[in-house]
Structure formats: structure tokens, C-alpha cells
Amino acid sequence: MSRPKLTLLSVLLISTMKLFATTVTTGYHIMVNIHNYSDSIIYLAKYYGDKQYIQDTIKGKGNGLFIVDGKENLPGGVYIIATADKRFFELIIDKEQNFSVDVDNGDFIGTISFKGSQENDDYYDYLHFINPRGTKLDSLSKAIPFAKSPADSLKITEEMKSISKEIDDYKINYEKNHQGSLESAIFKALDEIEIPDAPKLPNGRVDSTFAYRYYKSHFWDNIDFSDDRLLRTPIYANKLQQYLDKLTVQHPDSIIKEADYLVNKTKASPELFKYTVFYLTYNYETSKIMGMDAVFVHMATTYYTHPKDIFWLDSSAIKKIVDRGFQLQPLLLGKKAPNLVFRDLNNQPVSIYSVDAPYTVLYYWSYDCSHCKVETPILIDTMKKWLPLGVKVLAVQTEYNLDTLKNTINRMG
Fold this sequence. Notes:
With about 425 residues, this protein is of the alpha+beta class. Helices cover about 40% and strands about 20% of the residues.
């Protein structure tokens, strides 16, 4: 599903609605009335981590009227009503699950209104409040490099501070008056960590690493790890990615330490625990960075070996992950490779450890592989420079036709 420029985490507004109360008291019942909309279907979608998923396809009742309903309450979060042409607006579904939305298809922003959902009234009041101020902050930020004088630059900076304070005051006041609401949890999670001035070291110099260390150690202060509603917004997944990719040293040992820290913090919420374990497992199993499979091995052999904790998978799926982890464990970077034995062109056995060299490059290739035809000559040229340093190559052919192989080797020289 394509996403518009304005989302939950941006300062720009993306959607509009009007709500009419219903008398339903169980499950969820949302009446969506889209004026000037001729298609017969809409979609209810949800955020889950860093993805969006279709929850339901709703057929219209005619004249742009749609009933979005179900027998069980939806878990609290930010949801999406999407039209057939992939335009959409967001709505809060949490404590209030019986309400109505009224909107014009030609102008989501200008025509949104609700009835029966104070949560959405408050949510869109905030978005309408933040939209012009966010736009103004963006324009002021771009204007600073073009300031004609220090006085002009200071004037722009002061105006930006004033707008930022206005936004902060709005959020603080909202959090104070709406404790426990999803919007409050969202505002708090988006609060930036204020970093105090760095202290001086014993040598009198300012501690240049203080800001990083303080920010990282307080990064999760505003996240309630018992509140799985944040999983159904883009917030938790974005912070998880930022923490692991930007604030953690990109080395398996460092990431493994943080993985254990995060998994432990999410134990208060089964859903956050599930997502965090899954994210860490899948993300590092499929990482394109060499050596990061060590994180996958750690996850597989540490957490999936306790199947009762992995409640979302059946025993066969868990076994596959555990088996894969133990299979990869002896093959990780830094481990001693198994003594593989191959046959040379004369059908004689050659093992990895029979190669008399301080460093051995094990090169798997195929004579009919297009990539290999490009890379192999490069490796040959490189090895001419490395041979004096004691480096040797053990090239292993993955396809085997002896005549073709010999011809290929002779052609490459």
C-alpha cells in the first residue's frame, strides 16, 4: 500500500473523518461515509511494526456508506481506512470502537469530522495544530543558511524556539489531561531526550562522548514496554531500528548484548516480546553484512530453545530455526572451518588444511556463472599481488564437467 507524505510520525496532516455514534456495545462498529466516492469497496488496514497489513475488505452499502465491524474488539492502535485508489486516512481505535466517520473523497484534510469518538477528535485536533507549525519550522530551518546577518539568523532561531515551545506545551498539557490514552503514549514516545551539558574529564577537557552515551542510555525512557499498542503504530519499530542501526556499534557482539537487553525489557508484553524476538531473528538472519549471522545464531540457540516462550510458532517451525542456528554456529566468522575435502583435476583428494599457506581464500565458483566470469579474472589479478604475502586460493567448482572445467581454466590462464 502506498503511503502519502503525511503520516503519524510526520508533522503533516494526511486524513479527515466525521463520526456518527452507534448503539453497538460489543466488538467494533465503525460507520464510514465517504462523499463523492463511487467505488464499492474500502479497506481496513493496520500498522504492525514497520509494516502495514490489510485487516479487512469492506463492501459498500451504496452512496459511499461502509460499515466496518467485527464481533471482537480490535487491539488498540492506529488503523487505516484506504480507498480503492490507495488514498487513505488514519484513525485511532482503542477504547472507543463504536463511532462514525464522515469525509469527502475530494478533500480528506478539509472535511474530516467525527461523532462518538473523542479519541479521534483529539487526535485530529493535534494534527491540525501541528501541521501549520511543522510547515513553518521546516521553512525557517531552510532559511537559516540564507540569513543576511547574524541578527537575522538569531531572529529565525528565536522564532523556531518559540514554535517548538508551543508544540511542547501542547503535548505536555495533553499528556497531563489524557493519561492512559493512546495519543498520550504516542506523544510521550515521540518526546526527544534532553541531553544535559557534558561534564569535564579529569584532564579538564569536555567529555566528547557524553552526549552519545547519555542519549543511548536514556533512549527508551519514554517507551512503556508493557503497552503493546505502540506496536500497532510506526513508533516502536522505528525506534528499534534506530537503536540497533544508529546507536549500536555494528559488530555482532555489541548487537547481541543489546538484543538481550531489549528482549528482557519486552517480557512485560507478550506482543512486544514476540515482535522484538522475531525482528532480531529475521533481520540478522537475512542481513547483507558479513558476520551478522552470529546474531541470528544467538537468537536461535538462546530463545528458540525455550519453545514455551515462542508461543506464536508451532514445534516444527521452532525446530527448523533451532536446527539452523546450531548448523551455522561452527561456521561463523572467527570459528575454525571444518576440514572439507575436495578432488583436484587429477581426481586426488585436497583438503582445506593441506594448503600450505598462512592465509587461504576459499573460492566457490562455476564456469557457467555470469557473475563468476566477471569476478574470477579480478581474483586472479588480485592473487598475483597477494601471493608474495603468503595468500593462496583454493577454488572449488560447483558444477563439474571435467573437459569444460579444464578448457575454462586454460582460457583464463
